[in-house]
Amino acid sequence: MRKRRVAVVQLPTELGxxxxxxxxxxxxxxxxxxxxxxxxxxSSISQLHDSQVYLLLCCLEEAMxxxxxxxxxxxxSGSDGVLEGNGVGRLFEVFATIxxxxxxxxxxxxxxxxxxxxxxxxxxxxxxAA
Length: 130
Hints:
alpha/beta
């Protein structure tokens, strides 16, 4: 049995310079493994903006530097058009729910235990056959 950690981070409703920096630092703290798996929960936003797309790209870049991935969950309707309009539609896997996104990182059935890693960054663990 192998455990794979998946961090879940909440995208803030309103983003300013301070909030963007805080979210980016939070995502960096979640990348404490060789192959970080991070889900960004976007369910609290009503619309995806270009500045948020740029922030998501910065987070994805950091994950890829560590051979990891960022997946998005709970994007509002119409967000696919914003992602495509920015030319990044194929860079992110988008899921309807956090559970679906977390499950996509696992090779077996989803069985998660949630516990905080740091401010707002939760850890989801699942056991799967190697």
